[in-house]
Amino acid sequence: MAFSSSLSNDSSNTAEAKAAFYGLKWCVQNGINNLIMEGDSMLIINMIKGKVLPPWHLQDTIIEAQKLAQKINRQFQHCYREAN
């Protein structure tokens, strides 16, 4: 799967949260029932897991991602960003 979306001038956390949301949405729409989602933003992973409360500007995106995640068998995990 590959796609792009314009996020205007926003933060990397917004981009990470929206990427997680769009990825979950795609999986639900395409019948993917088992998912391991890896992200290099521990903060966003913990928000989706419900361990950290999202700030107001990410709240809608995180809540929608959580709702989608409840529809499938999923696991979220942090993976470290590789340095070049």
Automatic annotation (TrEMBL):
* Residue ranges occupied by any RNase H type-1 domain in the UniProt entry: 7-84
Where does the source fall among the domains of life?
Eukaryota
In Swiss-Prot or TrEMBL terms, this protein is called RNase H type-1 domain-containing protein
Question: What organism does the record attribute this protein to?
Answer: Solanum pinnatisectum
> What is a GO molecular function of this protein?
nucleic acid binding
Which PANTHER family does this UniProt record tie to the protein? OS05G0353850 PROTEIN, RNASE H FAMILY PROTEIN
Q: Coiled-coil region(s) at which residues?
A: none
InterPro entries linked to this entry: RNase_H-like, RNase_H-like_dom_plant, RNaseH-like_sf, RNaseH_domain, RNaseH_sf
